[in-house]
Specification:
Strand order of the largest sheet: 1-3-2
Number of domains: 1
CATH class: Mainly Alpha
Largest sheet: 3 strands, antiparallel
Number of helices: 6
Strand content: 5-15%
Structural class: mainly alpha
Shape: globular
Oligomer: single chain
Helix content: 55-70%
Radius of gyration: 17 Å
Order of helices and strands: HHHEHHEEH
Distance between the termini: 24 Å
C-alpha cells in the first residue's frame, strides 16, 4: 500500500458514520487546547449544569490535587476571573456550552457522542488512567 492509499484510508469515514461538523473546525481544537477548559467540559459532562462559582471551586480544587499545592481562596478567585473573562466566553462561542453571564449559569450544550468521547479521553490521558490500547 503506497502513501496515497494510506492517506485515503485515514480520511475516509466508515459508511453511515455521522461525524459532527465541529470535529473539522480549528476553533473546536483551540477550545480543547486548554487543560482548564477540558476539565470544565468533563465536569459538565458529569453534572450537565453548574455555576461560575461552583466551577471555580471544582477547577481550583482539581488543580490543587494534581499539583499537591494547598488550595487557597486566592487560587479560587483567580480561577473565577479566568473563567469569566476567557474560558466560558470561548466555549460558548464554539457552541460547547451555554453561558449566561448575568446569572453565572453554565450549561453543557448537547454534544455528539464523538465529542464527548474526545473530552473523556483527554482527561483519562491526563490522569494516566488511559491504557495504550484505549488510544
Amino acid at each position: 500500500m503506497d502513501n496515497a492509499d494510506k492517506e485515503e484510508e485515514r480520511t475516509t469515514q466508515p459508511e453511515g458514520e455521522d461525524l459532527p461538523p465541529r470535529l473539522s473546525e480549528d476553533k473546536f481544537y483551540r477550545a480543547l487546547a486548554s487543560l482548564q477548559r477540558r476539565r470544565l467540559l468533563y465536569y459538565l459532562l458529569e453534572t450537565t449544569e453548574s455555576t461560575v462559582g461552583e466551577l471555580a471551586t471544582v477547577l481550583s480544587g482539581w488543580e490543587a490535587t494534581t499539583t499537591g499545592r494547598i488550595h487557597t481562596q486566592a487560587d479560587r478567585s483567580k480561577c473565577r476571573i479566568t473563567l469569566v473573562h476567557n474560558h466560558l466566553p470561548l466555549l460558548a462561542n464554539v457552541g460547547l456550552i451555554e453561558y449566561a453571564p448575568a446569572t453565572g449559569s453554565v450549561q453543557l450544550e448537547p454534544l455528539h457522542n464523538r465529542v464527548e468521547e474526545i473530552i473523556r479521553q483527554c482527561i483519562a490521558a491526563e490522569d494516566g488512567s488511559m491504557s495504550p490500547s484505549d488510544a
